[in-house]
Structure formats: C-alpha cells, structure tokens
Amino acid sequence: MAQYRASESKREQFRRYLEKSGVLDTLTSVLVALYEEPEKPNNALDFIKLHLGAAGPEPADTEALRTELADLQQKCSELMEENKELRSRLMQYEPSPDGEAAE
C-alpha cells in the first residue's frame, strides 16, 4: 500500500511539472485541433509534429535557405577580399601606428 502511494505521489508531481511548464496546455490544444479537423489526416502523428513545430521546414524552404546561404557566403567572401584590398591601399597613404610610413 505504501508503494502505491509513493508511485501516486511521483505521478502527481510529474503531472504538476507538466502543467506548470505548459506541456499539458500545448498538447491539449494540438489534440483539440486534431479533433476539430474536418478531414482527419492520414497520419495523426505527422499532424501533431507539424502543430508542435517538430516537423521542421518544408523541403522547398530548406532548399531556398541553402541557396540563400551559399549566395551570402560568397558575398561575404567577396566583401572580405575587397576589405583586405582597400586596407592595403589605405596603408600606402596612411602612416603606420608607430609613426613610420608603410611601404
């Protein structure tokens, strides 16, 4: 009997933890959305993952982001090279920090 109460106490603590962290509310709202869905999805688990945000971005979005990343990395490299070139040109006209002209 004492073991049953200890188990029940742990269960109640866990339930309070889930409630306090908002997990129960979130799961409830997703399950209600699934229940209210007029056309039930073929895969309920995918529906839940999508509504919880666990499904990740769509493949088309991922490809667009990869393309944008590659473009931005190339642009960054070009700007770094331009910055390096401009700094070296500037050093021809500006004296170095120790007071001597750079050559």
TrEMBL record:
<dbReference type="GO" id="GO:0003713">
    <property type="term" value="F:transcription coactivator activity"/>
</dbReference>
<keyword id="KW-0175">Coiled coil</keyword>
<dbReference type="GO" id="GO:0005634">
    <property type="term" value="C:nucleus"/>
</dbReference>
<protein>
    <submittedName>
        <fullName>c-Myc-binding protein-like</fullName>
    </submittedName>
</protein>
<keyword id="KW-0539">Nucleus</keyword>
<comment type="similarity">
    <text>Belongs to the AMY1 family.</text>
</comment>
<feature type="coiled-coil region">
    <location>
        <begin position="62"/>
        <end position="89"/>
    </location>
</feature>
<dbReference type="InterPro" id="IPR026060">
    <property type="entry name" value="AMY1"/>
</dbReference>
